[in-house]
Amino acid sequence: MGHLPTLRREHPDCMVLDSAQQVTPVLIGLARAWREDPVGVGALFADIADRDDQARADAHLDGLGDAEHARDQLADELLAAAGGAQFHLDRTRDRNAAHQARRIAEEARRMADILDQHANLITMEVEEAERERAARDEAQLLRLRAMLGRVGILPAMVAVAVPVRCGHCSCWMHHATACRAAWGHR
Question: Are 114 and 61 in contact (CB under 8 A)?
Answer without folding.
Answer: no
